[in-house]
What does this fold into?
Amino acid sequence: MDRPTRPPSGALRLDVRDDGPPDGEPVLLLHGFPQDGTSWSGVAPVLWRAGLRTLVPDQRGYAAAARPRGRRAYRLELLVQDAAALLDAAGVERAHVVGHDWGGIVAWALAAHRPDRTASLTVASVPHPRALARSLTRSPQALRSAYVAAFQLPRLPEALLGPRLEDLLLRSGLPAEEAARYAVRMQEPGALTGALNWYRALPLSRVRTGAVDVPTTYAWGHRDPALGRRAAELTAEHVRGPYRFVELDAGHWLPETRAEELAEIVLERVRSASTAP
It folds into this structure.
């Protein structure tokens, strides 16, 4: 049964789906760009059947009541605060944190800066931020990430992406149903700008994600067009806790295209962390 949770974040209100057994271990699922909480629709039911409770937000910029103006409102430290506020509102002290794409960046930062709120970490697609930064000069990753610089421009990315978003998502390997749904969602007033402001706030963010001490799994698809092998391999050097790297024969959109497989990866990490001495 869905139990809506709407945690305050200043004057903002995030929409959160709270499902599964109410007394189950909580799992926080953080979506990426340009997705929303529905990206976890294939993953969450597997977790419920295993007895876990899931908290799935539409994050800042994606929830209609949480689209502040200006890129400063999308700094990484504020996104991490949103996640902590969500746990507070749900009455959760610590959660198993799962993130994909931009949600993975928030998950890495939450685990690094708030290990007291993070029981375990599973990240799909996006490597540790410092591994990604190191790979920019040691691999073709800078070419793969060129779009990040283009997104820094005002207004032009919205004008170019808006009419073509569904087609671009299809070409990147996202299934048609999800590509259409996300493209329609991004047509809501302020939605695409809010989503792009996550990229635009990168130069303004004061958070620097350090090494992670909590039990961690990183899942990466070796056919991901945006994120290459070098950063994936370097990620191990930025995790001090128990670590597992899972390479999949897949592209970028792991929650949508490898839902059951990704859910089992999450379950393995949750069970391992829960039974650790």
Q: What stands out?
A: The domain at 8-275 is CATH 3.40.50.1820 (Rossmann fold). The chain has one domain: 8-275.
